Amino acid sequence: MTKKYRMTLAMRILLLVFIPLWALSGASIGIGTHYMAEQQTRKLKDDIKLIARAIRVPIGEAINQGDLATVQRTLDAVFSLGQVYGASVYNGEGQRIAAAGIARQEDTADNPLAQQMVRVGQDGDAYQHQAGRRVFSHFVPVTDETGKISSMVEVTRRASDFSSTMDRIAYWAWGSWGIVGLLTFGIVLLGYRQAVGRQVANLTAVMADVGRGQLSVRAPQSSATELGTIAKAFNQMLDDMARAQASIAAHQAQEIKLNQQLERQERMAALGRLVSGIAHELGAPLNVIDGRARRLTRNNDDPLALRELDAIRGQVQRLTRIVHQLLDFSRSGAQRETLQLLEMVQAAVDSVKHELAPQPPQITLDIADNAVVTVDPARFELVLVNLLRNACQAAESHVGVVYQTQPDGWSLSIWDDGAGIAADIEPQQLLEPFFTTKPKGQGTGLGLAIVHNIVSDHHGELRLSRADAGGLQVSLRFPEEITS
C-alpha cells in the first residue's frame, strides 16, 4: 500500500498563493518588455527615417547638378553620426552610385531590394544582409523638378541595435524578477513561520500533551483571529471534557455509594434474619432458667445460695435484655402515634437512671413543653434509652438533650462531656452491628445499630459529631412529614 503524500500548509501557501503571484508578475514583465521592445524598435526606425528624409533634398540637388562628390560627402557626414551603419544612393535604374559605411563593402553595386523600391517609388524599409551582416534599411525616393524619381537614398542600421538595448532591459527586468521572487519567497516563509507556524506548533504541542493525558493544559490564545478561534474551540472542548469527566466521576461515586448502601442493607437484612432466629431460640431457655432460679430462691434460706441465685438471675436478665435488643434490631416498620416529646424523654431518663452508678451525671433537658411529635412510641423510646445510656456511660459529669424545630422538620441532639471517640475510629463505624468501643463484656455493639435502623424507618437521619463540651453528639433529624 503506497503512502499518500500530504502537503504542508506552507507548501500549500507557496503553491496556491506565491507561485500564481510570481507567475503573474513574470507575465507582466514579459508583456511590458515586449511592449518596450516594440516602442524602442519604432523609435530607432523613426530615427533612421528622419535621417533619410533629412539628406534626401541635398542629395537630390547634388544629383540633379551631377555633383557626385557632394553626394559622397553628404553620405560620409551621415555615416559619422554614429546611429547610421551605412548609406547608399541609387539611380533611377537601381544602381548604386555612392556609398558610405558598410555599403562600401558590398561585392556588387546593384541591390535587388533597391531596384524594387525604385519601381515602387515610395518610402519603405526592410531587413537585409550587407557584407554578411544583418541590417535594417530605410529607402527614401528622390525626385527631380518634374516630380519623377531620379534616385533612391538608403540609410541602414545594424539589426543588433534594435535588440541589444532590449536585451539589456530584459536582462535587468528578468534578473530583478528572479531576485524579487526569491526575496518574496523568503518573506512568505518567514511570515508564515511568525504568523502561523509557531502558533500551529504550539497548538500541536498542546494536543500532544493532551494525548499523553495532561488534560489540564490549555492552548495559548493567538493574535490571529482564525487560529485564536481554533485555540478557543480546542480549549472549550477540553473544558467540556473536564466537566464530562467530573460528572462521570460524580456519577461513579454516587453509584459506589448506592452500591455500598444496598450492600449494607442486604447485609443488615441477612443479619436481621439471623439475629431474629437466634433471639427466638435463646428466649425460651432463658425464661426456663430464670423461672427455676426464682423457684429455688423461694425455697432456699441459705444466704450464700441466695446470693449465687441472684447472680444467676442477674446474668439471665442481662442475656434477656440482649435478646430483646436482637429482636428490636431485626424488626422493621413503624406504627406512629402523636405524643409529647418531653414526657417520652423524661420516661427514658428515669429508665436509664436505674441502671447507672450511685452518682449519675447531670442530665439537662432543653425541650419545649408543647413539643409534639409523631413516632412509634415503643421503638422511639428504645432509641432514647440507648442514646441516653451511651451518653451517661461516656460522660464525665454532664449530658444534654436539645430539641429544635427546623424549616423542614425537627431535630433532637444528645451530647456528653466525655472523652469522645478515638481519632482512628470513623463515626460511621459506630453504626455497624456488633462494633463497640466499650471494654469486653460491657457492650454488645447493637445500641447505635438499633437506633440507626429505627431512625431510618422513621425516614430520619442520624449524624455523629464532636460536641462543644468535648464528647460525642448524636443528632437525629426527622422530616416534617412525621411532625404533628
Structure characteristics:
five-stranded antiparallel β-sheet, 3 domains, Heat Shock Protein 90, alpha+beta, Helix Hairpins, 484 residues
User: Strand-residue fraction?
Assistant: 15-25%
How much helix, percentage-wise, in residues?
Answer: 55-70%
At the third CATH level, what is the topology name of the largest domain? Beta-Lactamase
Shape: rod-shaped
Low-confidence stretches: none
Main sheet specs: 5 strands, antiparallel
**Distance N to C terminus:** 82 Å
Instruction: Give the number of helices.
Output: 9
Would you report the number of β strands? 12
Find the structural class using helix and strand composition: alpha+beta
The CATH architecture term of the largest domain is 2-Layer Sandwich
Task: Report the C-alpha radius of gyration, rounded.
Answer: 62 Å
What is the domain tally?
Answer: 3
List SSEs in N-to-C order.
HHEEHEEEHHHEHEEHEEHEE
Strand order of the largest sheet: 2-1-5-4-3
* The CATH class of the largest domain: Alpha Beta
Subcellular location: Membrane
Domain Histidine kinase: 277-482
Protein name: histidine kinase
Catalytic activity: ATP + protein L-histidine = ADP + protein N-phospho-L-histidine
